[in-house]
Write a structure and sequence with these properties.
By secondary structure, the chain is an alpha+beta fold. Helices cover 52% and strands 18% of the residues. The chain binds adenosine-5'-triphosphate (ATP) and magnesium ion.
């Protein structure tokens, strides 16, 4: 069983190089036209679509490998500024949803500017300036994966508004993602963390996914020694709150 798992992980790992080659090729065609030649508008759109989807596969591959590392108890602590961590996670999300917003996030130079850009998309960011500028020591890849999954869900299931709140409480990082969508009835509060579970798959809007995101989030949070809380009910939106212990500097 263990050998089989390693084989699968290795196979997934080996997707990385060819994917990087595809990504570089498409990026060159798009960005280095003086060398590769001009593009028509239609060609450019097709290449952008190809690039977006290549990025989807790359992030899935990274997520699967990160989950494997997590189960093995491997934690990769790095020092990172909150602002970089959150901006990178937001860019990853919006790269796939709305390229223009992702480009605008990349050029934001301060917190008020970023907040304003996100607000236009119905995403409210609550974090204190002092924390925003602060460095923390944590497993960046895992936290980004948690952020991405919770935020993607909230943006997918919301009516119009999502709130992301980040705080430091003593030795814990506490963050919550709240949306104003249909919510999750309490009978499903455990089930949604099981692999492949989706509520009411007949609803066309739940089909966009695999029912794996939250199962992965739960594994990552548990492996980092954290806790996850869900507050939600039918028709009342959903709030996922994650509490993670911060490592000493
Ligand atoms: N914010 C939310 N509001 C309402 N329902 C939600 C929310 N987040 C998750 N759910 C429900 O929980 C199910 C499981 O979520 P999960 O993220 O694991 O899978 P998914 O989003 O359907 O697919 P993916 O594997 O792409 O993440 C969803 O299909 C949905 O029914
Ligand atoms: Mg999901």
């Amino acid at each position: 069983m263990y050998r089989k798992k390693i084989k699968i992980d290795l196979l997934i790992h080996d997707f990385k190089v060819p994917l990087a080659v595809v990504q570089t090729g498409i990026t060159s065609l798009l960005q280095r036209r003086e060398k590769y030649g001009p593009l028509t508008e239609k060609q450019e759109r097709a290449l952008m679509r190809a690039l977006r989807n290549t990025k989807v596969i790359q992030s899935l591959v990274n997520d699967i490998l990160e989950l494997g590392r997590s189960r093995e108890g491997i934690v990769g602590l790095t020092n990172i500024k909150f602002s970089d961590l959150i901006e990178q996670a937001l860019v990853e999300i919006f790269d796939l949803l709305d390229r223009k917003t992702s480009e605008r996030i990349k050029i934001c130079t301060n917190l008020p500017q970023l907040k304003e850009t996100l607000e236009e998309k119905g995403l409210m960011l609550f974090i204190e300036e002092a924390l925003w500028c602060q460095g923390v020591r944590l497993d960046e890849a895992k936290i980004r994966q948690i952020f991405r999954n919770l935020l993607n869900n909230a943006l997918k299931y919301r009516k119009s508004r999502v709130e992301l709140e980040i705080e430091k409480k003593d030795i814990h990082l506490v963050f919550s993602v709240k949306d104003d969508g249909e919510g999750i009835p309490s009978i499903y509060h455990k089930k949604i963390f099981e692999s492949y579970f989706q509520m009411d798959i007949t609803d066309s809007y739940t089909v966009r996914g695999h029912g794996l995101g939250l199962a992965g989030v739960m594994i990552l949070v548990e492996d980092m020694g954290g806790e996850l809380f869900l507050e939600s009910d039918e028709g009342k939106g959903a709030k996922f709150l994650v509490k993670l212990p911060l490592a000493n500097k």
